[in-house]
Design goal:
alpha/beta, six-stranded mixed sheet, six-stranded parallel sheet, binds 2'-monophosphoadenosine-5'-diphosphate
């Protein structure tokens, strides 16, 4: 029987997940469909009941439901619990259980690893932003033993709260202080929404003090290359956009649902083709 997967969000029409997962099913010979479901805030409880009622196999969760959805699930895996948000639900139909996972942070780390020049335990990271995406990245990096993590945010108190949750040794700074001490870091990650389409002229901080040895990573992938990454290029730094994180969070969801290795290259190819068209 064809299995049905999908993504719930609001908005959801722009999501690249249906195309990416459909390509993965085709490649691996799995008989499945992946559907975008537009779910408004007041429809979330019914939508989750629908996963059970219709016997859907698995669901991705996107903005604005990643936190609120947790209360409707039966179990959370450890990472989802630590991050405090769910982006993937697996439906155990034998036990009639919905289990929440979060593959955003680990997906990001998978996309980062091939670009790292040193082991994580020797890497000093500056993370800009302390919202949902930043949280997943910060918690994951801290848990995986990054040498030093510094979180900078426009609202300093949010950076401080996140740093505290990440554990001992994680620092919080203002964006201004971070900007002035850029050369201390091996990797700089933008997890703020600054620079995203349509505000493509904006940057979260100035890169004037950036060293060419730094890897600059932006979680944004629309536009394909933010102004932040273009300025980093000019400084001779290596750059990466957020498409890899998107692909790997999806690949990990695929693996949780199917138990088989995701065809990452195929998933990546289709996402890159689509995004580069824009
Ligand atoms: P997401 O889920 O995409 O991470 P979010 O949770 O709304 O979205 O978080 C947005 C992040 O971008 C926050 O860190 C936010 O900073 P504040 O905590 O100060 O709001 C940051 N951000 C958004 N607009 C910004 C701007 N114009 N300048 C600096 N930071 C900005």
């Amino acid at each position: 029987m064809t299995q049905v997967f999908g993504v719930i969000g609001n908005p959801v029409a722009h999501s690249l997940s249906p195309m990416m997962h459909t390509a993965a099913y085709r490649e691996t010979g799995i008989s499945a469909a992946y559907v975008p479901f537009h779910v408004k805030n007041d429809g979330l409880a019914d939508a989750v009941r629908g996963i059970r009622g219709l016997g859907l196999a698995g669901i991705n969760v996107t903005v604005p439901h990643k936190i609120t959805v947790m209360e409707y699930l039966d179990e959370l895996d450890e990472t989802a619990e630590l991050i405090g948000a769910v982006n993937t639900i697996a439906h155990d139909r034998k036990e009639n259980k919905l289990i929440g996972y979060n593959t955003d942070g680990e997906g990001y780390l998978r996309s980062l690893r091939p670009r790292m020049r040193k082991p994580l335990s020797e890497t000093r990271v500056l993370l800009l932003g302390a919202g949902g995406a930043g949280r997943a990245v910060a918690v994951t990096l801290a848990r995986k033993g990054v040498r030093q993590l510094t979180i900078a945010n426009r609202t300093l108190s949010s950076a401080e709260a996140l740093a505290e949750e990440c554990g001992e040794g994680v620092r919080a700074l203002s964006l201004e202080t971070a900007q002035a001490s850029l050369m201390e870091f091996d990797i700089v990650i933008n997890s703020t929404s600054v620079g995203m389409t349509p505000n493509t002229g904006q940057m979260p901080i100035s890169l004037e003090k950036l060293s060419g040895r730094t890897l600059v990573s932006d979680l944004i992938y629309t536009p394909w290359k933010t102004r932040f990454l273009r300025e980093a290029d000019k400084k001779g730094a290596e750059t990466m956009n957020g498409a890899g994180m998107f692909v790997h969070q999806g690949a990990m969801a695929f693996e949780i649902w199917t138990g088989i290795q995701a065809p990452v290259k195929v998933m990546e190819r289709i996402v890159v083709e689509k995004l580069r068209e824009v």
